[in-house]
């Protein structure tokens, strides 16, 4: 069963991809607008091919970005764990020093 966050991410991904498809179609129409001698069927075919190529490029970029995001997350989590251990160790050292200082001061 999906969590709410996963469902929201899926919806967001769907909406972003639909927007990417819309933009690819728009870029295709802008491209073919600069070629006025095309027939309607040639224009439609060229727009379709251009859109398919744009979407393939977008899919490749998105996969590359997703893979890099996963790598970065793993790296940041590893750094976080190290920093957490160091902070805990320093906290324990400071706590021990404080306890020793209190004991020394009270035993005087």
Which labels suit this protein?
about 110 residues; mainly alpha; 2 helices; rod-shaped; transmembrane; Cytochrome C oxidase subunit I; transmembrane helix; membrane
If you had to describe this structure to a student in words, what would you say it looks like?
The protein is built from two helices and no strands. Helix 1 packs antiparallel against helix 2. It is rod-shaped. The mean pLDDT is 94.
Quick recap:
This protein is mainly alpha-helical. It has helices at 4-33, 40-107.
What number is the mean pLDDT? 94
Head-to-tail CA distance between termini: 64 Å
Class by alpha and beta content:
mainly alpha
The fraction of residues in strands falls at under 5%
Radius of gyration equals: 29 Å
Keywords: Membrane, Transmembrane, Transmembrane helix
Protein name: Cytochrome C oxidase subunit I
Organism: Streptomyces aureoversilis
Transmembrane segments: 89-107
List the helices and strands and how they pair.
Elements: H1 4-33, H2 40-107
Helix pairs in contact: 1-2
């Amino acid at each position: 069963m999906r969590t709410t966050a996963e469902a929201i991410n899926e919806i967001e991904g769907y909406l972003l991809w639909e927007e990417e498809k819309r933009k690819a179609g728009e870029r295709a129409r802008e491209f073919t607008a600069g070629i006025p001698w095309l027939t309607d069927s040639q224009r439609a075919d060229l727009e379709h091919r251009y859109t398919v190529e744009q979407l393939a490029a977008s899919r490749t970029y998105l996969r590359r970005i997703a893979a890099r995001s996963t790598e970065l997350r793993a790296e940041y989590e590893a750094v976080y764990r190290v920093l957490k251990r160091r902070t805990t160790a320093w906290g324990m050292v400071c706590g021990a020093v404080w306890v020793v200082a209190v004991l020394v001061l009270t035993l005087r």
